[in-house]
Design goal:
about 140 residues, Thiol Ester Dehydrase, Chain A, about 25% helix, MaoC-like_dom, HotDog_dom_sf
Length: about 140
Amino acid sequence: MTTPQQVAKGDRLPESSVSITRTDLVRYAGASGDFNPIHHSESFAHEVGLPDVIAHGMLTMALATRLVTDWVGDPGRIVEHGVRFTRPVVVPDDGKGATVELSGKVADVAEDGTAKVNITAKCADQGVLGGAYAVVRL
């Protein structure tokens, strides 16, 4: 568990690497109810101009959020969160899927006992979330 005395501006969160496979997309679709064919049909994805099936944006956002909740130890400590979806996570049908690399850095520690964490999410060396951040209660 993270306490205010332990956190300083510039601190880095432990990095994380998460693989997303087509099976993960099926599981997420079932759990979320999001059965948009861009997440499971190659032909439909190509038809609408995508290079291949893509991961659900909310799944990518959840993975980024988990980086922070793992760090603070309690999802209830997130008081604010935001992201922009800048690039889709393309998930090839090769059994390996796509790997999302996640990192975070404390941008500010406030006197009210909160900290802002900037989050970076990359896939194939390209950012997939822009302006991703979380404000956490320490």
